[in-house]
Design goal:
By secondary structure, the chain is of the alpha/beta class. 37% of the residues lie in helices and 22% in strands. The protein contains 6 helices and 7 strands, in the order E-H-E-H-E-H-E-H-E-H-E-E-H. The protein is globular. Bound molecules: glycinamide ribonucleotide.
């Protein structure tokens, strides 16, 4: 069966990208990696992707060259764009072209703690449970339809590092499951 092709957008470490890469190495996983794009030529994740033999690209950051991103994604026949720690906002005209095909992972239980430093926001708010969300990307930041979530406890002695680490390990699982779900559903909707 045809696999769904993923285009991954990163800005930094790329651990969510790596979780997706690892899942894609499984024969039965319904998606495959097509390319990795970064707005940051120093993103650590770029090296990891290169070493794994992935086609990697750096695009102009100021202003963000969304036309180039679009071109690379089209060239690589991408079906689903996965933002994985991509720290730039994508313009509405790009999102219109890729409507329903861009997803993101965010380190909170949306709609709580949108935007930057979600883990710190959770600590400051004193919540006892936070988590992560995989959601569709729309022009309203962190507000698109929710695909998957996982809850994570906030422990009494947590600091930003311990909490972020606990959330991140759930992000990796949640992102893989969300991609599996979308890829399997989209294949089911294909005509025979
Ligand atoms: C992750 O925690 C991700 O949820 C967050 O950046 C980190 C990237 O880590 N993204 C956002 O906050 C987006 N609003 P990674 O580069 O190791 O995947």
């Amino acid at each position: 069966m045809k696999k769904v092709k993923l285009g991954i957008l990163i800005s930094g470490r790329g651990s969510n990208m790596q979780a997706l890469m690892k899942a894609c190495q499984n024969y039965g996983f319904p998606a495959e990696m097509a390319c990795v794009i970064s707005n940051n030529n120093k993103a650590a994740g770029l090296k990891v992707a290169e070493q794994a033999g992935m086609p990697t690209f750096v695009v102009e950051n100021k202003p963000l060259d969304v036309d180039k991103i679009h071109e690379i994604l089209v060239q690589h026949e991408v079906n689903l764009v996965c933002l994985a720690g991509f720290m730039r906002i994508l313009k509405a005209d790009f999102l219109n072209k890729w409507h329903g095909k861009v997803i993101n992972v965010h380190p909170s239980l949306l709609p709580s703690f949108k935007g930057l430093n979600a883990q710190e926001q959770a600590l400051k708010a004193g919540v006892k449970v936070t988590g992560c969300t995989v959601h569709y990307v729309t022009s309203e930041v962190d507000a698109g339809a929710i695909i998957a979530q996982a809850a994570v406890p906030v422990l009494p002695n947590d600091d930003i590092h311990s909490l972020s680490k606990r959330i991140l390990s759930e992000e990796h699982k949640c992102y893989v499951e969300a991609v599996r779900l979308i890829a399997m559903l989209s294949r089911k909707l294909e005509r025979p």
